[in-house]
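fwd from M.: "can u put these together and see what the complex looks like"

so here's what she sent:
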Amino acid sequence: MIHQKQNRRRNLLIALSFLLPNILGVLTFVVIPVLFAVMLAFTNWDLRYHNVFQDETLKFVGLDNFIRLFTEENFLKYLGNTLFLMMGIPFGIAGALCAALMLSKDVRAGGGQVYGWLIAGGVLVASTMMLAAVGLAGTAVAILFCGLAAGILLLGMTGGITIYRTLFYTPHFTAGVATFILWKKLYNPNTGPINSFLRIPLSGIESTVTSVSPVWMQVGFYVGIALMLLLMFVAARWAWKMWNDGDIGNGSAVFPVVFLSLPVVLMQFWGYTSGSVAAFIALAVAAVIVLYFVSKGWRQGPAFPSAGAMNGVGNAIVFSVGTMVGMLAIMGLSVVVFNLPTMAVDGNGLEPPDWLVSYHWAKPAMMLIGFWGAIGSNNMLLYLAALTNVPGELYEAADIDGASGFQKFWNVTWPQLAPTTFFIGVMATIHGLQGGFEMARVLTQGGPAGATTTLSYFIYQEGFETGRLSFSAAVAWALFILVFSITMFNWKFGNRYVND
Amino acid sequence: MKYLFLITAIVLVSASVATYMSLPSVNSAIPVFYWVTDANPARKEQINLFHRWLIRNDHVRKFEVKTLSEARSVRSKLADTVWDDIVATQPETAPLFDPEGLDADALEPKLPMTVRAPGAELRTDSANRQQAKQIIQGVSLVAGDVLDMGGASLPLFYQIGMLEEQTEPAQRLGYGPDKTYSAIVPDLMVDDQQYLFPCNVAVALYWINKDTFHRYGIELPSTRWTIEEFERIGKAFVEAANPEDQRRSVFFTPDVSIPDLYHSMGMDVFNETLTGTTLDEENRPEDFEKFIRAHELIYKWTYEDRILPTAADAQSFDTEAGYGGAKLQLFNRGNYGMVRIGRFALIQLRRFGSMNLEVVEPPHAGFPVAAITTRAAAVYKASSNIEYANLFQAYRASEDYNMQIVHDGDALPPNPIYTKTEEFLRPPEYPNEWGIHGKFAKAAETIAVANATSPYVLPSRSARILGNAKEDYMNGRKTMRQATREAAEGIDNAIQRTLREAPKLREEYDKQVELQKKIDARRANGQKVPLSWIRNPFYRKYYQQMGWVSTSGEDAEAGQ
């Protein structure tokens, strides 16, 4: 008995000695710093006045640092920047899913097609070089892009899906800083390939716009707004149907009402549309749509009442936010169409954006980089793995029922991918809130005028450029609370949706 | 498994010991200290000269060598980076420090001998130059011994308290403020105490590529010129240089310094006592308007006259390489007619061959002025080699170091007396530069003004606030009036926040605020002001030039 006890103690000591380096590492670099940071956020630790060379004592300041977050306009501005950049997350997830769906099919082609593509590619490269040689670099770049796409297609046809999977995963394993420098060159306003490419269609649009009557542009604007309202109506009808079928509860149904109305409300305050006849009409039509469905629901009640008020909330949010973004995009495009005649004759005509050096374009430029990175990320791999786990018999059953491709996706694939989507959504939200530091530091240094300063970059600025460690820790903890709350929200409602 | 674990642990411990033993400071018989600076090849020569300077000035460690085995021991105890320096000052030691190996046959007849090695070995550390790293290492007691920094970084390092005060050693070893340009002294001192001594001093003037001007048939500006002349010549230049209906690829100059511009109008962002901003629409309307006008001029030159490149144009040119980025290559190619940069541009310009160069002052709006900056070095307070670090500061006031700067085409040498030498004024290998060097030296002594930094707001913070105001305006988000009001509010808030966080500054701040009120009252009545009341380096110069300084002793006392 004693021998056994000694043996167990000896084994425990050996096990601990194995684990000790890791335990020490986690304690030193994770647990202690985290606890220290909690303490830090409630003190007045400023590196300028509290360090080994100074004799000032540290003071407990309670919630001062947290209160200051809301009196400091920068915090809210940078929080806004962070949230703005996060608007790209749904697109990134959708992109990763699309990539995974495409990459789950084999595309290897027969020899005849490959030779055809090879010859076409050769002709394309030769034409591009000739154009560049005679000074038509912009056109050459445009053709080069097409050539690149064709080349990639050819590679896939010869090498199969492995080639695409490798290519799509490239953003994830290339070094961030190197990639961002490359993007900086791509975004170069005058000489970058993106703008060289954009100049061609813009030049075509410019000549078209200047040759037609501005009335047509106004018509285009109203058609756009009508389309936006049509989308709202279709989405509202779908939401009503989901509520009627019991897929979403009363509480969850609030989200489509709010999110679908938001673009029209925004229209009343946006500088380009506020006070216009179109904005007034849109508001009236939107009100009629909302009232129609709400009153219809009120009068009839659901055909199949939902099990709970918040049932299907995840589905409701994803659906209504997606539609809202679509409505906003249509509204933005309509305004662009309306203003095209003025833009075409002002200054240098229709010019591509200045991207990273423009206050208004710097954030979208960074979102695009994030979107590109998100498509070829671990999310894509997760979706690929999840797709292989969808039981084949479900598709067979759907085929027997005569389901179309979209119906198979919506009723079989999408529900089966729900747990993966939930996990990806949670992780992407966490990364989105914490991210942006590396990109901002390399591409814009947080500018122009703080347009790309995210909270993580703000933490660095406060902590290491001005020495305000306590305030910096408070920002970090505020960020943590935000991440934690959103994750809990996702867990509470998203998880339920996954399990439905 | 546990044996594998044990072996791994032993290998790791052995590797750590081996790494430690290979550290220069462990192996060397002389102390090794570090200079945190950039990875410029010139640093090697400067360090070699320092080692030789130490030996010549008898800051040495002596080794008596009687036998060959003692010779081998000395050789192994001294890093090969100092061998050349010992041989240069003691040629008889050449067989001992032969890079091919100790030359016993040649050495034996010379024994016994005394080897005079430099008292300490200096090495560069270019991996830790970033300010954030220096601060973290500094407060963790592991920073480099000598730290390179610009004058704008001094307030932060001073507040942290990690710099060794240099006033006494500077007087003792001869590198006090009197050994450099008076205009740069505000960048080296805090509260009349010295903390820095320059490695070099830069006055930003405009370099002109005369060939580019001749190519387009444009007259050269005179050394001193106004902003009206700048605009007129600039417009003629870009019109002649850029074909019609094509994107502009030739600009007059890549940038105009906004501080130079508003300084030349007679204002600075901080008031005379550095207690607040002058961007006060109500109390200092003239200064407020001047600040706006300076920005509006930049906007006009950028977007209307197209003399200056837009941010997008500049990014299209950007290659992010070399001293001054790509602008010097573009200047050489003719994309820019002029570039505003210090004398150190020569490090790169000389590589382009014998350019046809000229230098002019920044254009002015009534008060000629040019910005003076420094790359200076401080001594780390927790250094274990403070005395040698101080000697390194002293070395930089010496002829050895200053003449190296003169020959290298770096910025101005720290000690102005070396700008009077023939080698500086007319370098024999570069006749195309004759007449240029003297202009930099003259500007440093006449029109140069150091950047004003307030002790109540960190320079990085105020620079960010002012930069955001400019970008908001240039991006069309705000009018300059609106952006200026917000910048003023931002700076005032930053000052108040500093005072809340550091109550010990309050007493001095209140005193200076009272003084500011007196200054304002005197200026309102057209009375003169004692120079000792003014802390802002720009206003010190401006008041003196305008004849607004009173010399009465009573006046000065009244302010105390």
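replying to her w this: The mean pLDDT of chain A is 85.
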